[in-house]
What does this fold into?
Amino acid sequence: MLVMLALLAPAGDAAGPDLQSSTATESADQTAIRKVIGDYAKAIENKDLDLFKAVKPSLSADEERRARTAFASIQSQVVKITFLSIDVKEHQAVVKVTRRDTINGSIPGAFPQTFNMSKGRTGWVIDEIGR
It folds into this structure.
């Protein structure tokens, strides 16, 4: 499975995003947050409930049931995450992305997602996922 993560270029940048300089100037927290979101995408693609729980340890019983149902009903899924913003304030972060999935070979469309995250003793985790 392929996980694709992208960074949007600033407005007016016709050449496209410069991932080298963007990652060189971002904070360690932003880098760690990107990794968690990447692991979230990888968990979906690989139907890996343990990894899903690792990045979102507050997963409710209902959320777990929905994830199991989704994993069972899909043959293949590729998740592309495009980061729009990462707003870090001390041990809290709000991450806005656009997510585009390819499910069983078709692309149903892109949609926004917002991740509320927190940093604990073991690092960054996803607390809530919204639109």
The helical segments are 19-25, 28-45, 49-55, 61-73. Confidence is low (pLDDT under 50) at residues 1-22. Residues 26 and 86 are 10 Å apart (CA to CA).
